[in-house]
Structure formats: C-alpha cells, structure tokens
Amino acid sequence: MKVPTYRRESAITAQPGAQPMRVQASASALSAGTRAAQQFFDQATQESLSWYETELRNKRDADEMQALNEADERMNNAIQAASQMDPDESETYFDKEVLNIQNEMKDRFDTDVRRNKFNLRVEKAAISRRVGVRRDATNRRIDKQLGILLQREELLQQQIINAPTQIERSQARSDLNALYT
Asked: Which among 93, 107, 119, 172 could bridge 159 via Cys, Cβ 3.0 to 4.6 Å?
C-alpha cells in the first residue's frame, strides 16, 4: 500500500492572509438549539403529566375502594341490627342506613363522576342485601303470626279440656275449627 506524501507549496503573494468569510447566519440556524431544548422540555412535561395522571388515578381508585369497603361493613352492621329489631321496622331501618352511608361518604370524592359511580356501586350492593333483609323480615313476621296462631290453638285446646260446661266446650271446638278453615 502506498502512503501519499504531501509537500507544502507556498509562494509569496501580494494578498493579505485574511480571506472573506462565506458563512451566512439565518434565524432558523440560530434557533436550532432553542427548538431542541423546547422539544426536550415538552417531552419531559408530557412524561411528568402522564406520571401525575397515573398517580392521581391510583390514589382516587384506592380512596374509592376504601370507601366501598367501609360502606360494605356499615351495610353488614345495618343488616345485623335490622335482624334484631321488629320485622315491621327492619326494612325501613336498612333503607335509612343505606341513605345515610351515601350522604355521609359523598364528600370523600372530589368529582361528580366519582361520587355518582360510588353511589351507584353502593346502591347495587344495597339492592341484593335489601332482598335479604326483606326475606328475613317476612320470615320473622310469618314466625310471629304462626306463634300467635299456635298460642291461640293451645288456649282453645285447654279451654276444651277445662271448660266447666258443655256449651263452653262446644264454643271452644267451634273456634278451633274456625282457625283452620
């Protein structure tokens, strides 16, 4: 392989050593660095906003789940309390408790969309539980009525056995037959 060699050739001339510059500066060339910085900062801003949006959504979802857990716990407590009270009042009590839960917890949400979503989820959970409360109240009403009926039957049977006159025994038998017809 041949390596080129260079010889310096210079001669004395009458021209000065300075030569005119042929570079021109334009506005687009001068602002190229600024545009690059702007693109960088725009991208950084977008990433920051995306991260903030994700964090805010996660926080709101966690707050909503916590509120739903608390609402579920309060509804379960209302079901237990309703099962211990008079069956005629238990359904009304449960409905009032669900309404209280919704009213007390609605201020936890900063947007109407989240508030409405929470209320819908609470109402959906309350519907299935309301059916259980209603079924329990109905069963307890039936048990109460059956207890009254059985008590009346027992009193009439005792009256049939212990009545001093035949007329009173006949009347008790007639009343006993009327209970079941």
From this structure: 172
**108: which DSSP letter?**
G
Instruction: Please state the rounded mean pLDDT for residues 138-151.
Output: 91
CA distance 61 to 97: 24
CA distance 107 to 115: 8
Plot region of 137 (φ>0 → left; ψ -120 to 50 → alpha; else → beta): alpha
Helices marked H in 85-181:
87-105, 112-162, 166-179
The span from the CA of 88 to the CA of 16, in Å, is 115
Evaluated on CA atoms 42, 44, 48, 51, the torsion sign reads positive
Contact 128, 181 (CB under 8 A): no
Phi-psi region of 38 (alpha: psi -120 to 50; beta: other; left: phi over 0): alpha
What are the residues whose beta carbons fall under 8 Å from the beta carbon of 171, sequence distance 6 or more? none
State both tokens at 34.
């600024």
State in Å, rounded, how far the first CA of the chain is from the last one. Answer: 127
- Once rounded to an integer, what is the mean pLDDT over residues 141-149? 91
Name the pLDDT band for 90 (thresholds 50, 70, 90).
Answer: very high
